[in-house]
Amino acid sequence: MTTLEAIRYSRGKLQILDQLLLPMESLYIPVDNVQDGWLVINRMQVRGAPAIGIVGALSLAVELCHRTFGTKEKLDAYIKEQLEYLVTARPTAVNMRTVTDWICKMSAAMKTDTGATVDSMKETILTELESLLEKDVGINKAMGNYGAEDIMRRCRNESVRILTHCNTGSLATGGYGTALGVIRSVNARGKLLHAYCTETRPYNQGSRLTAYELVHDKLPATLVCDDMCAALMRLNKIAAVIVGADRVVANGDTANKIGTYQLAVLAKHHGVLFYVAAPTSSIDLHMKTGDEIIIEERPHAEMTTVKGIRLAPEGINCWNPAFDVTPAELITGGIVTEFGVFTPAELQSELNKHLGLSN
Question: Does the active-site annotation cover 246?
Answer without folding.
Answer: yes
